[in-house]
Design a protein that fits this description.
Layout lengths: L8 H23 L2 H28 L1 H68 L2 H13 L1
Amino acid sequence: MSLGPRHVSHTHSGCAVTCWALWGATKSIRRGESYKAQQMFRMRLYGQAFTIVAMVAGSFYYNSDRILRKEYDALVQQRKAQEKRDAWIKELEARDKEETDWREKMMKVTQKREEEAKARRAREEDRIREGGPIAKAVKKIKEGTR
């Protein structure tokens, strides 16, 4: 998680002072000004100390912001997980409905086929009871002989 440059602006100031002091010390050494070089080295030390103090103070100051940010990120992640779960449940319900509809349709088709088969068997049984065309002819002959 990056806090961005606005959270560490004083750290940049400390680094700038340190760099300026080193540059000044280098110039003083080349000129032979040992007293000025010594002052610049002290300035470098103060700049580094300021940088460290700024980092520690910033960490205390922005600690609560980081905690709140973590809580916010956790809530966002939880919300996304809940939305994903809800979408998955919705998809499962849709698939279940499709399957239920398909089974009902297949049951209706099966029942219709069974009813048609039953009606066919009943017609065949009636035809057998009544007899076929030969049985009808024999029956007519027998009736005519009496």
